[in-house]
């Protein structure tokens, strides 16, 4: 992560240097547990029981936890989570993931052969290997949003592909507009040869949620330009506004033939993000739709030359896609955890940030991040240049040093020339959010005064 | 895995078709838990306590389990194994791994900056990316042993490198001989440009353990030919014969300057193999020695564009490299598990297999596999050709169908023209091994009679 270099301030905290804050609040990652969010008990109990089956003796764990763990262990080779699974995942878990997708999409069928469990949705981007010819000239291109989290861009570069940036329209709530896709496509002429369109919904770092109409336009565009659709839908559980999450798979199916039978789509999901937030377990899946059987064969062999995803991560995916149901003993507590809604965090962020001079935050409709614009005073921009930093990096560094808040600058994600943003994770306990907003407000006012 | 296609026979078992065996014994993987080996309690208890810290309340778990889990949780961001770690691993675990290596190598120092934890030793082969230029002509070559497990060869191919096979000398206990390395190097002329030499010690599938003298010869050869040494040492805990395991790092250090300061070496280890056998957790590490600082920079950025290894796997590595010590409450049970030695399995395999007509098994000095030669009768070879199979694949398929033993054929690993081998995992409970040998003996005698 590009911001690991910012960890040293913690070291001086440890070394006892006095700072005007007690501890750093690190909201630079999309990593809820790091920021103090507690894991879901049901998930952890099932995992612990699978790891150490002796825990299932007696009635210390609820009966549905024990039943789930017993079933899952039966599905592991040799009855142990310590054995390898099939490289695309434990077949029974793959089957249940596919059933979850069918339910989620209102009955649009999902075929289990199209699901591949991997050690994270980022890893699954490797399917691009079948699209990218690293020796091609001009290079293979992938249309990618601005702003966009940097791991995707780095993955594309590692595969030898070129990112072709298209801008989301901030003033319209970070809308994805087809005219801009067309402009981006035109811009690639003579530079690279675009084969895919990468969309993030709900957004990261920009917290938009696409509506059906917008998705249909994007799908038509992809069809017309013969672009493979890569849909990063890892925040599908995290929606706070009026627009409900609709998967690209569902939007595509609803459009009917010929589109529903021809547009090639990969949709990514993970146990790392959303309400579960189990980043450390490393597991995600990709669903592939409408791929040519010959290409599927390549993808199968791509997966089969790799080892399986961590088995405990696969089990977390099983729980994520098949949580406790009404009537199950663990259901009430599970729902209580799940309902610890982030809506209040989002409301407070919008309220406080928008009240600060020189800040503007679009509604956070979904995802895990706020990505407000900060209008930096010319003197601050000048000072940043003097010290050889991007202005928003300068702002974030000061914010860290003076207020103990570890944010990331918009520079890391791409932003329109002359605009500056900061990103911070909103998936944190409400009391931590209040402390964060208090520190941010105090710091920002001092900063603006200093450079006014 | 190439042999997944052989799973169907299990399906007919489930479907109730009568077979002359109760269940398939699958020893085609190096996957002890799959074959019925029980996980180490201490490992599983620490992992379960980290996952579900409530388990540490009361005294259900030994005090050293609780202390270990508490320390590890403090080292995780936000005190949760659900958060990301640094991409090279949790710094404190990396530090303890480096201390383990120093102890193992009799004090030869190990620098923590040279250790990278990844999601398995196979993944760590990606460091070859810095050596392999996929666009080079002629292609980059890597000297690889015959026999060799196929995952390495597949990884090399995926990176765009060419494998340059060198043969181990079966009749001398699968010895690695420098003359053969020279022959292999010569064979590459005009075909590819070798930059690295891959060695497996203890062997897989051939169960040799290299002695110091042989390693020194290999190191001198690598130095002279300027080859990067890639040492697969994942079975370092599994040694049954007279030759003790010496790491390439140690052998190199003992040779003194200039070699000890110049030969570039990567050594791989993992929690999947050896006595722990936690394949499903997905974690391993690589130690890099004598690499150019500029190359190390590349490797650092290679790791930093990836997500971290599964945190629970990292914790398993911590336990593997720092097991309970004399005086710790968990020590007696841990030692009892560890001492459930495989030496008796090995003795029985050599005894029984070598007593069968047409079989010859070199001493299994280390590793997880037996890889005996089977001298197939000409009529069997002919029949195999008729059905379009390699003779050893034909033998293994019959063995599966008639005796319920899932072995893998030598064809998968490479073998001298006209010789045939079978590989099977010896890390199985002793009663399973006895049943395996009973079935193998019965089947083999019938097979030899049928084709005599």
Automatic annotation (TrEMBL), chains A, B:
Any one GO BP annotation for this protein: L-alanine catabolic process
Name of this protein: alanine transaminase
Protein species of origin: Fundulus heteroclitus (Killifish)
Enzyme class: transferase
Enzyme Commission designation: 2.6.1.2
Subunit and interaction comment: Homodimer.
Cofactors, names only: pyridoxal 5'-phosphate
GO molecular function: L-alanine:2-oxoglutarate aminotransferase activity; pyridoxal phosphate binding
